[in-house]
Amino acid sequence: MWAIGHQGNGKPCCLTRMIIRQYFDDLISLFFPPTCAGCDMPLTYGEHLICTVCWFHLPYTNGHRDSCNGSARLFWGRVQLAAVASYLYFMDDSRVQRILHRYKYRGCPEIGTLMGLRYGELLIATPPFNQIDVIVPVPLHRAKLRKRGYNQSAFFARGLSQVMQKPVVIDGLVRNRAADTQTRKTRYERHENVLNTFAMNNSRGLAGRHVLLVDDVLTTGATIEACASVLLAGGVADVSAVTIAKTV
């Protein structure tokens, strides 16, 4: 007779393997505890990626409650969007900057999914965000995608999708040329940099639908404007947009 936790072929069953894996994970965490992406302090039991203190002190915009919020006003007179909102304010040398730096550049895309789960809980109760049909992340050019290994906006979209119960169309938009980094460009330079950069993948069936366009950080709005313009020209009925953060 085999001991509990083993199959008849002598191999550990799934439960036993899970217990063993948890044991080793706990042992590793004891000597190398995971740290918070916002403050770099060790996470305590039950915390994941971001500690409770940082969640409490993050600068939330609450822009989803105000149709005239700062993110939305950025696009007035530029492109017709149904609604725009950002989850957090972005400032230099802040918790948000450290979180997004780990998210984008230190191989931790799970932060985007977590942010999507959190923000989705707010958006699902807020019109017109709760009236969307599909979620489309801002795409990366294939060269940058190969270099980074993942599209950070797609992971944010994944978290939103899980809560809002709307499908993600990863390739609804394609980036047909590699634009230079936007980080140190002026508003005009950012606008010029993304002209004719994006194209709509018409085989994805987005025409006539309300699309939620998602990106990580909203600065001048040039990227969102370029993507939304392409979607609307391609027959999309409405475009709303959300980002994890907005620069101050």
TrEMBL record:
Similarity comment text for this entry: Belongs to the ComF/GntX family.
Residue stretches making up the Phosphoribosyltransferase domain: 153-245
Pfam family, one: Pribosyltran
Name the UniProt record assigns to this protein: ComF family protein
Listed InterPro entries: ComF/GntX_DNA_util-trans, PRTase-like, PRTase_dom
